Amino acid sequence: MTNYEVIIYWSDEDQAFIAEVPELSGCMADGQTRQEAITNVEVIIQEWIETAKELRRPIPEPKGRLVFA
After folding, report:
1. CB atoms within 10 A of CB 62
2. pLDDT average per 10 residues of sequence, the chain (69 residues)
3. DSSP character string of 30-56
4. Is residue 63 part of a domain?
5. Residue 22 domain flag
6. Distance CA 57, CA 20 (A)
7. Which residues make Cβ contacts (< 8 Å) with residue 55, sequence separation at least 6?
8. 56 in the Ramachandran plot: left (φ > 0), alpha (ψ -120 to 50) or beta?
């Protein structure tokens, strides 16, 4: 997994956990559990980066925040 910040929250509308990556515009995924949302967003982050490379768009450097669990 890359070191991009991921924000996870519950969506009543979607009845799922949403994982958003603020540093990568429009990059988000969902899941029935927090872990599933994280797993799904890891795939989406890689796809976002691959697409940006193909389109020769800039890829933001991760802020690399230290997170304590």
Report:
1. 14
2. 86 97 96 96 97 97 62
3. EESSHHHHHHHHHHHHHHHHHHHHHTT
4. no
5. yes
6. 20
7. none
8. left
